[in-house]
Amino acid sequence: MTLTLTLVALLRRARGFVLPCVLLAAWQIAAHRDAAHQYAFVPLQQIAAAAIELIRSGELFIDLGASLRRTTLGLVLGVASGTALGAAMALSLRVRQLTQPLFQALRHVPLLGLVPLLSLWAGTGEFAKVFVIFLAALYPMTTASADGFGRVDRRYFELARTCSLTRAAWLRDVLIPAALPDLFAGVLQAVPFAWITATSSELFFNAGAGVGNLMQNAQAGARVDALLVCVLGVTVLAVGMGALCERAARHVLRWRDQA
Length: 259
Description:
Blueprint: H1 2-14, H2 18-31, H3 35-40, H4 44-57, H5 59-91, H6 93-106, H7 115-122, H8 126-150, H9 154-162, H10 167-204, H11 211-220, H12 224-252, H13 255-258
Helix pairs in contact: 4-12, 5-6, 5-8, 5-10, 5-11, 8-10, 10-11, 10-12, 11-12
């Protein structure tokens, strides 16, 4: 009985791999139809060979490492700033009246549309790339923070006054725990946006190490296999970072299941 239950559980978990396996099989079949298909749908063994080549040369680790550092820095700055700005907008009417119209206007401007302007203002170096990632993380984090702090039950404010809590204790014991679910939701939204803009900014600001630079070189050499390796590398890093954030959220918010 135990063995049967184990097999059923394994089969349920494996269902998520069915569609990817089907797509890989369809890709491999398309790659062997003719020369045109083989160029567009590179055989899987050729992609694997390109990955081994880039790993042995060290290019893949250098460029992915540079993108990871850049994305992490922009994400951390965007999350911290967005949390502070969203909290201020939710808790202060004056701050909300001053900042919300401008914030709502700016967040509807496509970030990649700002790239030419940023290149004129800040050049094409590290600052410009990190700043674009920072903005990509700032927008969803500010919205999530404002929603989280704005939804705190007003009875908690009365309770804090009754108990004569200090401002630090009020933030630590009342506001932040109540807003944490929305804050983590904002982080999980910010991670994919940060990676999308990181790769895009490296493609536009083609200077220095980064996976975007490696993709540019692969495109110039008509190396579709190397391009796909870059895409897979970014996907693995982005999914891994998202999974770490999700695991941290489950750990920090485990008290909700016990309440």
